[in-house]
Amino acid sequence: MNTKHSRMASPPDVPIDPATRLALYRKMMEVRALEKRAYDLFLQNLIKGTSHLALGQEAIAAAFGVAMREDDYTFCTYRGHAHTLVRGASMTGVLGELMGRECGLMAGKGGSMHLTSVPHGAMGSYAIVGAHLPIAAGAAWSAQYRGTEQAAVCFFGDGTTNIGAFHEALNFAAVWKLPVVFVCENNLYMEYTPIGAVTAVEHPAADRASAYGLEPLIVDGNDVEAMFKVAQTTLARARAGQGPSLIEAKTYRHSGHSRADPAKYRPAEEVAAWMRRDPIKLYREKLLQQGVEEAAISKIEASVAAEVDQATEAAKASSVPEESIAMTEVWANGDWSWRN
Amino acid sequence: MAELTYRDAVAAAIAQEMARDPSVVFLGEDIAAAGGVFKATVGLLDRFGPTRVRDTPISEQALIGAAMGAAMTGLKPIAEIMFSDFLAVCWDIIANQIAKTRYMTNGQVTMPLVIRTANGAGSRFGAQHSQSLENWAMTVPGLKVVAPATPADVVGLMAAAVRDPDPVLFFEHKSLYATKGPVPEGEWVDQLGKAKVLRIGDDVTIVALAAMVPKALAAADRLAEQHGVTATVVDVRSLVPLDTQTILREVARTGRLVTVEENPRLCGWGAEIASIASQELFYDLDGPILRVTTPHVPLPAADNLEDHVIPSVERIVREVLQAYD
Ligand SMILES: Cc1ncc(C[n+]2csc(CCOP(=O)(O)OP(=O)(O)O)c2C)c(N)n1
Ligand SMILES: [Mg+2]
Q1: Most buried of A111, B17, B223, B314 (most Cβ within 10 A)?
Q2: Which residues does chain A have within 8 Å of residue B29's beta carbon, measured at their own beta carbons?
Q3: What are the tens digits of pLDDT across the range A100-123?
């Protein structure tokens, strides 16, 4: 669905065309299938280390994946399987990286928290909270300087709004009018701590927007069409030279913060209420209501299921990386040496 | 002696000091209600309450800055930086402010604080969550640097660090949290700046730190059993202050020195020890000093790649034999 030309920002009452709606559904399904598979592979001890899943938060990445131009830039966090996949990186590349296989996007050198696919504009997953906000601003500056009308989109969590880099990047991007869209995925928790317990305002991103001259934008992050529309308008604004936007998308993760976390600190009623608002379930119902044939939806589901099975087999079949690659790509000449 | 995990020793040490001294406070991200991401601080909130055990926002500069301000004005804060890699986010406060203020004020300000942090590789967390960064701290005048290898040292050195009037960076090793060991009953306080000789041999002195200590011990066993080489193993424990007396005594006796370091090669703590030994023991050395380190590369995530770069028992044995056979 990515095209070289940005979609026109559609006013809220203009319906999204049928092909785009199915594309949104498919992207969400792809993320869901991939993340569930990542979880299963962990249980089988085929994935080591850590991983942070986007189960429940699929609509945000999917909407941007569909709305972004092929040459736009994505910057995301350790919770970045989704944001990398929706730009067109292969499932095999993602699963292979999580499994530490040669076929992985970075041949096993980066791992789950650092997924990167530059050919797809996925400019990296950053595991130090806040680091990538100024970096995304820099990519946006580069686009502005080169006059390309590319935009950078930077995804991060609610907890990230309390680190200095968030505030520095927003002011910087606003002052330089940079084509960057900052997307705060407010899943109500910074790791294990409720965001309200550590934040001075109710809406961690939106309530800070005015400090940087930005409009507060709060969106239902589990409504993929709402997310798609706000993606379109903010990307159009960026391309038009009107500067950055800050979106706060309300959402919820279905699983723990990371693999090690059973998420017992969340009240059962809260979890149940959000499970009822599963973005994929909601959208499936909506598509049916809108008259989309059940068969068209099932076809997508079957195709995605086959795709993830195939990718899993391909990743399992891939060998572990040659040990020698641990000693490559420190420098631009491919080498690691530091003395003669 | 009670048998504790390294993980539980952390909470035990903090509890021992908080119970003793009401000016000791503890702050960090997810340390209170959640008991820490490594579950090393479980129970402290319940025991000491939310005014002394405080969850912070993800604001490393603010939390380390606050620890400094509190230390300047009568408290003895213990601050957690969840992964040592995040020290980079608040390095200004640590390296420019905390380390230098006593000196710049000609002793007007005292800085009794401890920054404890989870350090090191082995968990397949990749390049930004696996580093061994003791060396960063070691290069800054005004910081003390400790890295325990056993549960007993976690308690004893943490107690010493809290009671020390100067700022101490306390590096806990992630891959040791699950290990167990005896800890003395009752109040247990050790001393900063004391290395420990763990094993006596005549042919070579192996000096190691943190997670490299058990590997050095295993390598020494193998060298003795399979190659007839007997090694002394010294756990450095404290990089600043550094117990050169113990280290140099053992090196002089065996005539050979090997350092085993998890950090990347350049400017590792072993280089400093090697330089001191070559200067002060030149005529006692029977051969070149050897440093076994991670090569000078960032850390890869895949398990076989991480295992390839971090010094292993096999590699320690091989390099020692290559150098000395
Ligand atoms: C500078 C820094 N401090 C702390 C951490 C540890 N950490 C990793 S994720 C996280 C919580 C982030 O919460 P949020 O921004 O809401 O993102 P979410 O995980 O909910 O998507 C923390 C504290 C880190 N990676 N970097
Ligand atoms: Mg969050």
Answers
A1: A111
A2: 190-191, 193
A3: 999 999 999 999 999 999 999 999
- Which residues of chain A are within 8 Å of residue B57 when distances are taken between CB atoms? 159, 162-163, 190, 198-199
Judge contact between A28 and A55, C-beta under 8 A.
Answer: no
Please state the atom number of ligand 1 nearest to the C-alpha of residue B29. Answer: 23
- pTM of the shown model: 0.95
Looking at the structure of chain A, the number of domains it has is 1
Nearest to B116 by CA among B156, B154, B149: B154
pLDDT tens figures, A298-332: 999 999 999 999 999 999 999 999 999 999 999 99
Its ipTM equals 0.94
The whole domain housing A232 covers 18-116+128-304
Quick one: which of A303, A272, A295 has its CA closest to A56?
A272
CB B302 within 8 A of CB A108: yes
* Chain B residues inside the 8 Å CB shell of A128: 85-86, 88-89, 128
Q: What is the pLDDT of residues A226-242, one digit of tens each?
A: 999 999 999 999 999 99
CB atoms within 10 A of CB A98: 27
Q: What is the CATH number of domain B196-323?
A: 3.40.50.920
Fold of B2-183: Rossmann fold (3.40.50)
Residue B239 dihedral angles phi and psi, to the nearest 5°: -85, -35
Which pLDDT band, with edges at 50, 70 and 90, does B323 fall under?
confident
Task: Give strand pairing partners of B172.
Answer: B118
- The Cα–Cα gap between B114 and B28 comes to 12
A199/B57 CB distance under 8 A: yes
For chain B, the domains span 2-183, 196-323
Active-site residue, B129 included? yes
- Cα–Cα distances (Å) from A117 to A33, A91, A123, A140, B196, in that order, read 20, 12, 6, 18, 48
A113 Cβ partners below 8 Å, 6+ apart?
A50, A51, A52, A78, A80, A125, A127, B125, B126, B128, B129, B301
Test site for ligand 1: of A190, A199, A203, A248, most ligand atoms within 8 A of the Cβ: A190
Give the bridge partners for A73, in sequence order. A152
Q: A8 to each of A3, A214, A228, B19, how far by Cα in Å? A: 12, 22, 12, 64
What pLDDT score was predicted for residue B324? 73
| Sign of the alpha-carbon torsion through A303, A306, A308, A314 | negative
What is the residue-wise DSSP string for A80-139? Answer: -HHHHHTTT--HHHHHHHHTT-TTSTTTTSS-GGG--BGGGTEEEEE-STTTHHHHHHHH
